[in-house]
Amino acid sequence: MPATYGFEIGEILARIHALDVEWTDVATEEPTARDWPELAEQARVTGQPWADELASRVSTFLAIAEFVDGCERPGPVVLTHKAIQPWNLLARDGRPVLLDWELSGMLDLPGGARLDRAQPRQGTWLRRHRARHLPLGPRVATPVTAMFCLVADDSENVPGDPSEAWLDLAPDYERARTREDSLDRLVEWPAQRALLGDVTGHSLLDLGCGNGNKLAELVGEGATASVGIDVSGNFLSTPPPGLELIQGDLSELDSIPGLVGRTFDRILFLQSFGYAKNPLRTLQAARAMLADDGFILLTKTQPIRYAVERAEQNGTSLGEEYFSTVPFSYTSGWNDQIALTKRPYTISDLINVFSAAGLWIETALEPQLSEDA
Questions:
Q1: What is the 8-class DSSP label of residue 123?
Q2: Model confidence, pTM
Q3: Is 65 exposed, middle or buried (0-12, 13-18, 19+ CB in 10 A)?
């Protein structure tokens, strides 16, 4: 974030703080939540693996709520914007723009600055803005967004070394994908294509491109100077002009000579992100190659699918399997001779990786089969 943005935001707040607002003596803020017993019981009933731990902390949380509501505000109290967070900031013509002014309210100046820095992030918001978000913090230098799509495929299974799995399964996957009844043909590719939008004149980088067929189709629709990376090297024999296919590992993007010094308008992880040995490092490397006003499109298998299957197989609850961190193995539908091991993950795991990589979600999509499929 440019240093001038910080100064401008500070000037905006200073002008608001200087407003002469007459505050009522009647409390206008809701009391601190005290529904911890009900939440703990709900966790127990739904079989959450952390239910017992939450129940053991209920008295502590209630004591904290009692303490917070009993604190006095020495004042002075001023008007302020109470949610200056990355998702409430946009950039326009090189200037910061604050959103969500309905969140304005009282601030106790003596303690407010310290409290604001210590305030935890209250949940994760998936919000869509046509303008690009402006993330804050030293790790983020430019506004970058991501779109992600959750599908029902199993094309990102991970044995001990993720790249070894794909080397074995790549030919089987390509054969399965071309079938008329494949999920890729019926659900995934239409959803991916819709999120990409018009690619005319845009450069694309497809990380984990398989044989390059999808990227070749996009180049045929107007994409330019595009590159596909795949560890298998099992590429189209005659790629179209404007498309370069390079054998390489998406976990080692910094070491691929053909990518050095290049940027791309759109970067794709189409069911390939699960093969990254270090997901955060891979996303950070991809982000470094993203052009201004570009975005990353990432698709992954809907994690609830695996939780449902494991709950049925193991006789456990859906919640227990969804939040499990224990790897599990199964046989792929592409080749029943290969047993795969998968790392479980939750939606919050994905979102947290995006955030840590300096990315903000613009659109999330969960496509379904149409009635005609």
A1: S
A2: 0.58
A3: middle
143 φψ region: left (φ > 0), alpha (ψ -120 to 50), beta (else): beta
- Tell which residue, 11, 288, 356, 350, has the closest CA to residue 156: 350
Q: Give the residue among 75, 64, 81, 73 at the shortest CA–CA distance from 16.
A: 81
Peptide bond just before 76 cis, omega within 30 deg:
yes
Per run of 10 residues, the mean pLDDT along the chain (length 373 residues) is 66 78 62 87 86 89 83 69 74 76 67 32 29 29 47 48 58 68 78 92 95 95 96 90 95 93 94 87 93 91 86 91 84 67 84 86 82 64
> Can you tell me the distance from the alpha carbon of 293 to that of 141, in angstroms, rounded to the nearest whole number?
13
CA distance 136 to 72: 31
Query: What is the reported pLDDT for 153?
Result: 52
Q: Give the N- to C-terminal CA distance of the chain in Å, as an integer.
A: 46
265 token code pair: 């308008």
- How confident is the model at residue 201, as a pLDDT? 96
Integer Cα distance of 357 and 359 in angstroms? 6
* Per-residue DSSP letter, 268: E
Please tell me the distance from the alpha carbon of residue 203 to that of residue 265, in angstroms, as a whole number: 5
d(CA 242, CA 240) in angstroms, rounded, equals: 6
Place of tokens 């699960």: 274
- Write the DSSP string, 194-261: HHH---TT--EEEET-TTSHHHHHHHHTT--SEEEEESS----SSPPTTEEEEE--GGGGGG-GGGTT
For residue 197, what are the CA distances in angstroms to 191, 201, 270, 316, 348?
10, 12, 15, 41, 26
Rounded to whole angstroms, the maximal C-alpha distance in the chain is: 77
Structure tokens given for 354? 């995006």
Question: Which single residue is written with the structure tokens 């935001």?
Answer: 9
Please name the helix (run of DSSP H) or strand (run of DSSP E) that holds residue 180, with its range, or none.
none
